[in-house]
Amino acid sequence: LQEQVSVGGRPPIALQLTLRRETPSLGDKVGNGVTVSARELTIPRRAREAMERGLSLANDKSDYAGSLAQFQRAVREYPDYYEAYMQMGMVYLKMGNAAKFEEMLRTSIDMSRHKYPDALFNLAFVYSNQKRFADAEPLAREAVKLSPSSWEANLELARALHGLDQSAEAEA
């Protein structure tokens, strides 16, 4: 994709994006810096800014009510922002509202069409903590399938399998 972009009223600059599929071996790092998906480039600036403010309020200031408002704003700006739904769920979990946590993570998983491993392994994490290993195991398997090198996904799969008395497979 080649495009002319004007930044801040300055003369246009040339921008060239090249997307290619890479299948790195386990442990290899793709590229030499931050990887941005094509989907991320479609998220409106105001939605991204609200998401960043929400993360800052939740993580840096423990302002959970304020962060929820920002994540809700992000979703209003970009209704398909499944990452914001997951973050809302994480805030509800910190606030002790397990039902809203599960609802938000289920929404994130459904909106992403089961393609967002973070929501999958975070929901599996809570299910394992609740000793709901039969519910955690398929979610963790999906997360591992999507992101085989993710230690979080692999950990949650092992925890669920161990809870299901499948220790040999959990150890593997």
| Structural Rg | 19 Å
How can the largest sheet be summarized?
2 strands, antiparallel
Structural category is mainly alpha
Strand order of the largest sheet: 1-2
Could you tell me the number of beta strands? 2
Mind sketching the topology for me?
Elements: E1 2-5, E2 13-16, H1 38-42, H2 45-61, H3 64-77, H4 82-94, H5 98-111, H6 117-129, H7 133-146, H8 151-163, H9 167-171
Antiparallel strand pairs: 1-2
Write a structural description:
The chain is mostly helical. It has nine helices and two strands. Strand 1 and strand 2 form a beta hairpin. Helix 6 (about 115-130) runs parallel beside helix 8 (about 150-165). The longest helix is centred in the first third of the chain and has 17 residues, at about 45-60. The chain is globular. About 35% of the residues are buried. The model is unreliable at about 25-30 (pLDDT under 50).
Quick tags:
mainly alpha; 63% helix; 9 helices; 172 residues; two-stranded antiparallel ribbon
TL;DR of this structure?
The protein is mostly helical and 172 residues long. It has nine helices and two strands.
